[in-house]
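Subject: design request, 159 residues
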């Protein structure tokens, strides 16, 4: 039996209290959130797409999306699959219409690609529950609404 997945949306790209870039993903029809610390380049790529900005020359994620389109491969979905020792794991699920392939991917890259291809970002319900329980145990409070979520001063997770 396959696990139930929850769709996430990118709520905001912000800086944590130390000035490190963080992407906040919130469940599409709920309140639970996932906090993923990312590199500055990835934060820029995600933010630019969210704001409808384009670089004068293709960025790496733009190039990859162009290559996929050129070879008639679509991004079916992005899966945030696990968190181990403060590191998130993700997969790109690709299809050429006949075959489906899954590629290991950094979540930050997967998010940037998902935004560019309008592909859903999914997480297993069980993992989202586990992350939400960890957040509650750490005392982090989530503020509702875009741009109003702040991460605690705990350990950073890595993209």
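Subject: RE: design request

Done. Sequence follows.
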């Amino acid at each position: 039996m396959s696990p139930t997945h929850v769709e996430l949306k990118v709520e905001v790209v912000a800086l944590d209290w130390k000035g490190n870039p963080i992407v906040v993903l919130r469940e599409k029809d709920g309140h639970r959130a996932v906090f993923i610390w990312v590199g500055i380049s990835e934060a820029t790529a995600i933010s630019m797409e969210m704001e409808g900005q384009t670089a004068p020359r293709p960025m790496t994620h733009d190039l990859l999306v162009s290559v996929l389109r050129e070879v008639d491969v679509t991004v079916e979905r992005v899966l945030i699959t696990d968190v181990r020792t403060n590191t998130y794991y993700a997969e790109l699920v690709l299809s050429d219409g006949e075959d489906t392939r899954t590629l290991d991917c950094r979540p930050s890259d997967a998010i940037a690609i998902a935004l560019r291809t309008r592909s859903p970002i999914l997480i297993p319900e069980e993992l989202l529950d586990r992350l939400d329980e960890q957040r509650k145990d750490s005392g982090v409070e989530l503020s509702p609404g875009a741009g109003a979520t702040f991460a605690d001063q705990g350990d950073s997770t890595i993209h």
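The chain is about 30% helix and 35% strand.
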